[in-house]
Design brief:
It contains seven helices and 17 strands. The protein is an alpha/beta fold. It binds S-adenosylmethionine.
Length: 284
C-alpha cells in the first residue's frame, strides 16, 4: 500500500507563518524527516507518536546521505505511512526537492508539494523593504553565495543590474570574498545591502551597509541572508525607529556602514521599546 509523501515548506521558523495545510499535515504525520533549519517551535507541532528525524546536511556535517533519505521516504510510503519531508522556507528553493522528487517518481510513489515562505520574503518582510518597487527595482534574483558541495564561489555574472534586488542565500561569513565577487560582477560599491540574521526567529538582527564595505560587517548568527540592491536599506519611515532598537544614521549610503540594528520586540504585544537613534547627519 502506497501513501503520499509530502514535501512541506516550514517557512522561516515562526509557527504562525506555516500554511494551514502544513500544520494539518504535521498533525497527522506518521514520519517527519526534517532539515536542521526547521525550528523547534514548529517541530513541537508534529503529532506526538510520529517518528521525527533530523536528516539535515549542513556543510561538512552529514548525518545521513541523500540516498538514505530517499530510501527512508520510499520505505515508509510503501508501508502506507503519511510521510512528511519538512524543509525550512520553501521546499523548492535551495533544498534537495529536485532529487527527492526524481527518486519518488522512479519508485512510483505519489507526492505533493506544500509551499512555504522562503527566507528572502521573510527577511524583506521583517525589514519592511519591498523586493520590487516600480521606481527602483523590477527584478528579484535568488542566488547562493557558494555551492556547498565543493565550496565553489558564486559567479554573480551579468545577471545583476541596478534594477535588481539580489537575495543571497547561505552568504557564509567570508564577507570580504562576497564583496569582491559582487564588485567583480560590476555591482556599484555604493549599492546598499542588508544582512538579516535569523529572520522572523528569536534573536533576529539586521546589519545595513554598502557593497564596498561589506567586508567590515560583523559575523552574524546563522541562518542569515543578504539582500543587495537599491531597495536593500532600512526604511525611511518613522516606523523604522520603532522597528529597530538601535539606529545609527548619517548622511549617505556610506554612512550605513557598521549600522547594526537589533530588531525590537514590536511584533509582540508588549510596549514598543524606546528607540535609541544617534543621528549625526540628516539621516538616511
Ligand atoms: C539550504 S538553504 C534553504 C532555503 C530555504 N529552502 C528557503 O526557502 O528559505 C538555507 C539558507 O536559507 C537562508 N535562511 C533560511 N532561514 C532563514 C532565516 N530565518 N533567516 C535568514 N536566512 C534564512 C540562509 O541563507 C540559509 O543558509
Amino acid at each position: 500500500m502506497n501513501a503520499t509523501v509530502y514535501l512541506v515548506g516550514a517557512g522561516p521558523g515562526d509557527p504562525d507563518l506555516l500554511t494551514r495545510k502544513a500544520l494539518r499535515l504535521l498533525q497527522c504525520a506518521d514520519v517527519v524527516l526534517h532539515d536542521d533549519l526547521v525550528s523547534p517551535e514548529i517541530l513541537q507541532l508534529v503529532r506526538s507518536g510520529a517518528l521525527t528525524q533530523n536528516v539535515g546536511k549542513r556543510c561538512g556535517q552529514k548525518r545521513i546521505t541523500q540516498q538514505q533519505i530517499h530510501a527512508r521516504m520510499i520505505d515508509a510510503a510503501r508501508q502506507g505511512k503519511i510521510v512528511i519531508r519538512l524543509q525550512g522556507g520553501d521546499p523548492l528553493l535551495y533544498g534537495r526537492a529536485g532529487e527527492e522528487m526524481d527518486a519518488l517518481r522512479n519508485a512510483g510513489i505519489q507526492f505533493e508539494i506544500v509551499p512555504g515562505i522562503t527566507a528572502a520574503f521573510a527577511a524583506a518582510a521583517s525589514a519592511k523593504i519591498p523586493l520590487t518597487d516600480r521606481r527602483l527595482a523590477s527584478k528579484v534574483i535568488f542566488h547562493t553565495a557558494h555551492h556547498c558541495k565543493e565550496d565553489v564561489p558564486a559567479d554573480f555574472g551579468s545577471a545583476i543590474s541596478s534594477d535588481s534586488t539580489l537575495a543571497i542565500y547561505m552568504p557564509g561569513h567570508d564577507y570580504a570574498r562576497l564583496q569582491n565577487q559582487l564588485l567583480a560582477s560590476g555591482v556599484d560599491p555604493e549599492t546598499p545591502c542588508l544582512l538579516i540574521s535569523r529572520a522572523m526567529r528569536p534573536g533576529e538582527s539586521f546589519h545595513a551597509t554598502v557593497v564596498g564595505k561589506l567586508s567590515l560587517a560583523p559575523r552574524v548568527s546563522a541562518p542569515s541572508i543578504l539582500l543587495v540592491g537599491l531597495l536593500a536599506k532600512p526604511p525611511h519611515r518613522a516606523d523604522a525607529a520603532i522597528a529597530f532598537s538601535r539606529i545609527e544614521a548619517n548622511q549617505s549610503y556610506s554612512a550605513l556602514e557598521n549600522m547594526t540594528m537589533q530588531c525590537a520586540s514590536v511584533l509582540g504585544d508588549g510596549p514598543a521599546p524606546s528607540p535609541t537613534i544617534r543621528n549625526s547627519g540628516r539621516g538616511c
